[in-house]
Amino acid sequence: MTAYQNHPYRDVIESLQHPNREVRMQAARVLGSMIREGKITRQESAEVNNHVHTTYSFSPYEPSMAVFKAWEAGLQIVGSVDHDSISAAEETRYAASCIGTGSTVGFELRTSFRNTPLADRKINSPDGKGVAYVVVHGVPDHQIQASKEFLKPVQKARNERNRRQVEKLNELLEGTSVGSVDFEQGVVPLTHIDEGGSMTERHILAALSKRIIYQAGKGGGVLNLLKDELGITPAGKAQTYLRDPQNPHYLYDLLGVLKMHLLPRFYIDPEPSETLPIEEVISFALSIGAIPSYPYLGDVTESPTGDKKAEQFEDSYLEELFDVITGLGFPAVTYMPPRNTKEQLLRVQKLARSRGLMEISGVDINSSRQIFNCPELLEEEFVHLVDAAWALVAHEAISAADASLGLFAEGNPLAGQPLEERIQRYNELGRRMDKHHPEQILKYSEGVLTNG
User: Fold this and answer.
1) Which of 168, 239, 328, 339 has the greatest count of CB atoms below 10 A from its CB?
2) Chain mean pLDDT for the chain
């Protein structure tokens, strides 16, 4: 990657992006040794990020590189969360143990709320009513394979829809200089489908972006093609970014413009087989000792990633929403401090606490323009989310060693304690454990997980 062209250890760092997983993991081992020897250093922060996408859904970063980028940014914890896939989990955990940072793993998927009072509401998905994204956090190591099997039918249904979406896109492209997007040769190679990764609309848009850049050349040529042939005129920062042929984030900036202006023209609503009933998703997540979380989106006024238009989501019926998700059995809610106003988030916090829901943070990374840092987490109103992240790390590791010790397990010795107390105990355990050997967490749990 060009960002490391002058780095003394450029070759090993760039190997974190190698197409072969074994090469990436070997690079993570080497880098871990270099870090322990003091050859590669960083400025540490107390920040964390539990929601980093990888190439197993859509992201510039392979799992090993995502872990290193997070460590390099000073983060203490990195979590991989991919759409409809958990196939980055093993590599994320391994790279984190090599580099010496806390880690969590999970997955994100669309679900159906059509059997709930919110069936006719726009919830947290811009794509339709009665559909909501859900994040399953804290999947124990021994339940990763079960999660992969659970997601396979969803991936199959989504790929069938992706193929139809490409066909619909190509109808729009008829008569343009762009030509057509080849599903097998243009889109599939951008994914890790052969390793259990998923394909998203962003992959389709990335393939289209590559064709547009190839056809028109970066800069004014792309802007002219967008305007004259696709009827798209980017404004503001997006136009400035696309006018600059030296922009290192060009592909992702163009993708963002296409997502906002073109995707609605070829988007096809998911079939029921792709949006599983929310009750089924929560039941599965709890059965494997994971933590299903409702991700608050909130009304959007200005998108931090530049690919979401201003829209209204949950804010007008937020109390009703919290009643519904609590009734469904959600143990947690997740939100992203940089994405909303402080007023919005303080309201979410108040509702979460009144209903006994764990608060989890994370900033989704799917563009090279985004940064891994989240300094908002260190503000007084949000610093408790750092403790919750460490509790999540401990929950995940200790659940793999003993399922009865999961944060929300019925047999947990702290089950009778208030949620805030449990989170603080697990926070202490997460900070105490050896990050290079999370499987040894029981060695560090003495006196922490006792009811007394």
Assistant:
1) 339
2) 94
